[in-house]
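Researcher: Can you fold this with acetyl coenzyme *A in place?
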Amino acid sequence: MSQDAFRLLNPDGKEMDLPVRSGTIGPDVIDIARLYREQGVFTYDPGYVSTGSCASEITFIDGEKGVLMYRGYPVEQLAAHSSFLEVSYLLLHGNLPTASELEGFDRTIRTHTMLNEGMLNFFKGFRYDAHPMAMLSAVVGSMSAYYHDSLDASNPEHRDIFAHRILAKLPTIAAAAYKLNKGQPFIYPRNDLSYCENMLQMFFAVPAEPYEIDEVAAEALDLLFILHADHEQNCSTSTVRMAGSSGANPYSAIAAGIAALWGPAHGGANEAVLEMLEEIGDASQIGKYVKKAIDKNDPFRLMGFGHRVYKNFDPRATIIRDMCHKLLAKLGRQDTPIFDLALELEQVALKDDYFIEKNLYPNVDFYSGIIYRALGIPTSMFTVMFALGRSVGWAAHWREMIADPKGRISRPRQLYLGPEQRDYVPIEKR
Ligand code: ACO
């Protein structure tokens, strides 16, 4: 659209010009902020299918072409050449760091990995079989009770401290949740290790014997975190922005985002994919399950397929599939049958008329679980791993939102379909 206004003709024949705003790239948006004041109507868009909730400079997606860029850099280039910490700096600060900026950032994150000892007591209170996402959201929510010395959202230094704490401490919290489920002692972080090496040792080391870090495993984790780091206004990020828009402290906003991520239509899908592949069990059953997914009377959906924005290949899925090949070649063939099954299922679905017609392609979650499983991470931890990668995106969006001088509380309206006014009836007359 090259026009700079969108003309609206209301039923009374009155016209109104709505301004059209152009982004750097991507479709234009119609600015409807004045609509209610001047026309007395709201827009109605459940699920926000055609609604931009904010302006952002962080991430761009072209769902038709399968493009994803962080701060203008294609995710394929970042996946091939960058590291999760460098990408984190990019998302938080807007530009790739210089060598000394990256060194300083890396040092800051490495030296803030420990938790306040009091926080570890939470893990003594949770049931041994608590879902790790429940523990993650609860403990992250509690961070505001430990770090209330730096919760002034109007202070840029406090905003930096918050982002560093989230990035540095989430893996430690996740590892504590994992160890509780496992019945093993908590392993403290080691600042001499890289971000992902440290995470692997906190998860898998035990005091009884030395732990050897597998470099390919650390590389695979780093790659997954890069690919999960941000995805513009997805459900959990929008939740973080929404909760934070009230002025709630950022740890509470991130805890809300973690809760939103947990759902199977969002980050919970990676867990659901593995459960589905295990249920399918064998290539001979694929046809039956594809039929179930197509049957509108059957609630079954092909998990890891379809996306609100991508109507083409999710570029992240393709990169992760390549990493699956590399990792399984290195780690042995134990998880190969499930990967082979996933590859076969992808081929069958991609050739199916229903999936072709509805543009349903594998999404980021289709193959990520296979990598986590090959690394020895249990299914219940998959969504936690997603949260660790996405935490920096949440922090970047919260910072962007809070630093916007025109920022307002997020407060959508509704189409009311309840009863009209009626009078209270005393209980004995009902
Ligand atoms: N299996 C079978 N049919 C599907 C699937 C699927 N995985 N995904 C979408 N469809 C169908 C829908 O039934 C719908 O059909 P209809 O037009 O006949 O009603 C059509 O495709 C459009 O799908 P919607 O659900 O309306 O699309 P929406 O954008 O609301 O949902 C979502 C997207 C939630 C991702 C959906 O594709 C889905 O449930 N996929 C499986 C879960 C999943 O993998 N989630 C992870 C998403 S990525 C992420 O959050 C990291």
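Model: Folded with acetyl coenzyme *A in place. The first strand starts at residue 5 and ends at 9.
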